Amino acid sequence: MENRLKSLLTTSEKLVKLKTEVEEAFGVPALFYINPTLSHLGGYDHIRAQPTFVFHPDHINESNIAHEMIHALQKKSGFPIIIKDLVNDKRFTVIQELNSNLLHINLVEQMSNRGIDVKPYISSTITKLQNFIHNKSDVKKMRSIGIPRTHYDAIVLLRLKYEAVYIPESRKRKTYRLYKSRYPEAYDLFTELVNIIDTYNMHAPETTKEAFKKCLQLLQKEADYSMYIKLLND
Ligand SMILES: [Zn+2]
Asked: How far is the CA of 100 from the centre of ligand 1 (A)?
């Protein structure tokens, strides 16, 4: 597995180019690790000064490696990246998901400009999202024990809209309609978020930050989430 990572980093022209860009931007060599206990596909550690990436051994592919390296470039150019473990409750999941989804609008464009397929890194998430709307018993059970998922559902739908560039609009509309009928509050919130996002240039760091703030302002209307704005202003 380790060999596969090494070989991709030296044989894929697109990854070689990206790695050079990352190392030039940070002025130090990039570090790459494999971790079989990772709960997600991969990650970029934005806390460390040296660009550091970790991947699950089952998800070593051009798409996923490029995805994480583009996040490093985004951080260096000033896109908003929230601090890890800022709050220790459900709000953090929502903020993190929103941040990730907003960054991915630019990320998906960068990947297509570089001729890198987005599907391998995002398709499992999108499939989960599409299945989640179907009233399966495990989903019902999960929903009944958790806090209301309105915010999370609304934000997750952004992935389908902006990241799933390989899915035809007609198929996306089917999922939207299901959300609209089953979780109308989440669907309405999704629409409001889209209205905000579409008025900003999501390919520039400053305007992405503005959009992020506006989205958080919308979410903080609910008492539970009053800390959103406070966090961002800190
Ligand atoms: Zn990402």
From this structure: 6
